Amino acid sequence: MAIALNLKKLLSILALIIIFVSMAPDIASGFPSQFDVATDTNLTPQENQELQAVRQRRNREIASVLNESQRRQLEHFLRSGHDLEYAINTLDIDHDQWDTIQAIMQLSALKTKAILHRHSLTLSS
Predict the structure, then answer these.
(1) Phi and psi based region of residue 81 (left: phi greater than 0; alpha: psi -120 to 50; beta: remaining)
(2) What does pTM read for this prediction?
(3) Rounded distance, CA 112 to CA 36, Å?
(4) Distances (CA, A) of 81 to 33, 75, 84, 86
(5) Is 78 helix (H, G, I), strand (E, B) or coil?
(6) For position 124, what pLDDT does the model report?
(7) Taking the CA of residue 5 as centre, how many other CA atoms within 13 Å lie in the half-sphere pointing to its CB?
(8) For 31-66, what is each residue's pLDDT tens digit?
(9) Exposed (0-12), middle (13-18) or buried (19+): which is 35, by Cβ within 10 Å?
(10) Shortest CA distance to 29 belongs to which of 3, 55, 53, 56?
(11) DSSP secondary structure, 7-66, as one string
């Protein structure tokens, strides 16, 4: 029963993210470069562009979950050299925000893995 409730909650959060992102204007992220992960130099320009798009979308979605004060705190932590996970864990956010951000992070990680996996398949061919 609890698993079904958690699954419904996660699916509704993902649906809200998709709806919000599709309705939101496509703006560039205001987060600093520490928000990005290092990329493999063997990637094609298209693959690098796809990874950058995943990161920018993740940044916009996380920013949309936070209020203005939380966004400023996040930017401060990132500019101070902290990684994204530390910065998010340090923010004063409620449980729903936490769940939504974790769903965003997991979805972005899956998209990144898919791009990198596709890259490894083209190298081995």
Answers:
(1) left
(2) 0.64
(3) 12
(4) 10, 10, 9, 10
(5) helix
(6) 59
(7) 2
(8) 443 333 444 567 889 999 999 999 999 999 999 999
(9) buried
(10) 56
(11) HHHHHHHHHHHHHHHHHS------S-GGGSPP--TTS-HHHHHHHHHHHHHHHHHHHHHS
